[in-house]
## 1
Amino acid sequence: MITDKNNREVKEGDTIEFTNTFIPYKVVLKDGLLGSYENGEFIALKDCLRNFAITNR
């Protein structure tokens, strides 16, 4: 289970914002990992250390 900085569970289809950029990203599932794409590169949320917040469900 992946949670955001407010301890809310992240699900596929959620929109998140990373703390530093405040740019909205759509959460997708790729190879069993939740993440998002930035500039064509997949970013797995498990590697982001809860440095993001859910903005829309």
Note: The CA atoms of residues 1 and 28 lie 14 Å apart.
## 2
Amino acid sequence: MRVDRAVVSEEEKTVNFRVFLSESERTRFKVACAQNRTTMSQQAVELIHEWLKTQESETPSPDKKGKGEE
């Protein structure tokens, strides 16, 4: 599976995000990404985007509440 770079608007700044893994977890992740011809960063972004979609579809955001639901 190849993960293409996420499309980011010109107005949105890309920031650094740090994740702590054991050395063996990092190695496994790095190998899996290499086998899929993607970078660890690209794969992490894709996983986060997918997770956010599921979270946002399960939990309505405060601005989407109906009137009187405070």
Note: The chain has a mean pLDDT of 83.
